[in-house]
Design a protein that fits this description.
By secondary structure, the chain is α/β, with parallel strands linked by helices. Helices cover 25% and strands 30% of the residues. The chain folds into 2 domains: 1-68, 2,3-Dihydroxybiphenyl 1,2-Dioxygenase, domain 1 (Roll); 75-150, 2,3-Dihydroxybiphenyl 1,2-Dioxygenase, domain 1. The strands form 2 sheets. A 4-stranded mixed sheet has the order 4-7-6-5, covered by helices on one side. Strands 1-3-2 form a 3-stranded mixed sheet. The chain is globular, with a radius of gyration of 17 Å. The chain has helices spanning 13-24, 53-57, 84-96, 141-148, and strands spanning 4-10, 37-42, 45-51, 78-80, 100-107, 112-118, 124-130. Helix 1 runs antiparallel to helix 3 (84-96). The N and C termini lie far apart (45 Å). It comes from Xenophilus arseniciresistens.
Length: 150
């Protein structure tokens, strides 16, 4: 069995741990606490928050964003929730905790209900579920591609 450990580099590991814990309803894995690390325990995964010194410890100093700059989006987690109401709740909690709703919630062409969010340190994540709420249909991919080309 495999378990996913997903880590974010953070300027404030305490605040980020609280934000994600509140938005996703996950408890802190307190046994892993250190001066430069916090983690949340999820079912089959762990969400970690590394303080800035971890760039150096991992040999990634050259890849750290400059002070005051936002890191480019090169990947993002998608957390699959159990139903559309949970996606709606996570989006509302994100805003209430100081994050941003970047898009959605909306129907995807592949039949998921999702929202694209941004945490207080500008990290991007998605929350989604399989299935759509009543009254919503999956848009056709061709229509979406035509919209984006204009």
């Amino acid at each position: 069995m495999m378990k996913l450990y997903l880590n974010f580099f953070c300027r404030d590991i305490e605040a980020q741990c609280r934000f994600y814990g509140a938005v996703l309803g996950l408890p802190e894995h307190e046994a892993l606490r250190s001066p430069i690390y916090r983690a949340l325990q999820g079912p089959g995964f762990e969400l970690g928050f590394n303080a800035w010194p971890a760039y150096e410890l991992l040999g990634l100093r050259e890849r750290a964003p400059a002070a005051g700059k936002t890191a480019p989006v090169t990947c993002y987690p998608t957390l699959m929730l159990h139903d559309p109401a949970a996606v709606e709740q996570a989006a509302k909690a994100c805003i209430a905790q100081g994050g941003q709703l970047l898009q959605g919630p909306f129907a995807t062409y592949y039949g998921q209900w999702q929202a694209v969010l941004c945490d207080p340190e500008s990290q991007v994540l998605r929350v989604a579920c399989v299935g759509l709420p009543p009254g919503h249909e999956a848009p056709a991919l061709d229509a979406l591609l035509n919209q984006s080309s204009h």
